[in-house]
Amino acid sequence: MGTVGDTATGDRCRRVLFFPLPYQGHINPMFQLAGLLHARGFAVTVFHAQFNAPDASRHPAYDFVPVPGDSMPGDSPDVVQATLEHILAVNRACEAPFRERLAALLEQQRAREDVACLVADAHLLTLLDVARGLRVPTLALRTGSAACFRWFTAFPMLCDKGYLPAQESQLDTPVIELPPYGVGDLPSTSSAAAHAQLREVISRAVAAVTTSSGLILNTFDALETDELASLRRDLAVPVFDVGPLHKLSPAASSSLLRQDRGCLDWLDAQAPASVLYVSFGSLASMSASDLKETAWSIANSGHPFLWVLRPGLVRGAPPSQQQPPLPDGFHATTHGRGMVVRWAPQEEVLAHPAVGGFWTHCGWNSTLESVCAGVPMLCRPCFGDQKGNARYVYHAWRIGLTLDGELERGKVEAAISALMGAGETGAELRRRALEFKSSAAESIGEAGSSCLNVDKLVNHIQSLQL
């Protein structure tokens, strides 16, 4: 790979502008990419919405430009619909102030010749259009899998052939054009209006990619060989799979919640591969009854556990609630065997030798971090791309199990025992997981696929001209 300073022009560095979608799962890979490119000699400017604004003090080498005017997420009980509405609202609200601030930056002496491009989340089509209108080249970052973007591009076909909107009676039907997906793995909505919003958001993400100068993906070739080949065949823009970004990037943490690092000390005292790590990400939620079943499943499993209970995890809880209350008797039953925290340094937790399994919502960041750590998964997807990610985990890659239907403690206890136990199922899952861990390490090693793609991305950015 190249070295720091490769991107300098005379005594100046070329500058890459970034704009993340303001959600934790989108902010993390954007900042990891910024850290990777900064280490290769690019100067970094981060434009950001006011909602979930990043902490600039953690990144003293970057310039930050706040963009006012974005809205807060709605309070709809349907998290999918609320998220779709907010994505569209952020695009509308940030358009004018972003144009003003980007134009001001370009008017600064020598800035125009120094700026290489804008890298923005693919869900920010409006802001990518603004940049191109000011003659700034753009690259789109997709923070999901290659497989996920493949079904984004296929969305009109899925609707035309009747797979979507998904019907309850057809959830087990295979999507023959997109194996290994079934209809139930595709995103579902609760109403015709929500389906129209979903279609708009997906079509805009595809347009953001196809009208930019390239697509950046946080994945690696050995994990999604066929899916990446399909995208390269079907898209008219270059595709750069440069993941796993959290392994390649030196960037500081961009967590929006304070991480409880004391859990790492607790893990140090546990036996190897003995701990079940439980976390459902930054956005997924569950009912109060599901929380109760989850708690007693963990308690009755008998395994040591580290459980992330973040604010807002339980639907309908008051906003002031800092941590969901656990059922009476839970702490007494699990005394000395587990630890409950509001938020954890997940990459370090998964890499810890004491962790033997991960009960996850299957967001792409969590899935990729678990793959890289060689930790098998127990999948409980909630919405969006999570069901498709889970399908790959248990069906295609065979490095996990899935929990379908209602949460029932007996069923969940059995799944935990299979995942964590010494039996044939657990042993095979661990063996497969370690194989993928090895593949991930190879991808970022010298002459690895992702390492080479970083070089290609750097050269591509250098070739872009305003």
UniProtKB/TrEMBL annotation:
The keyword Transferase applies. This is DIMBOA UDP-glucosyltransferase BX8. InterPro entries: UDP_glucos_trans (IPR002213). CDD domains: GT1_Gtf-like. Keywords: Transferase. SUPFAM superfamilies: UDP-Glycosyltransferase/glycogen phosphorylase (SSF53756). Belongs to the UDP-glycosyltransferase family. The lineage of its organism: Eukaryota, Viridiplantae, Streptophyta, Embryophyta, Tracheophyta.
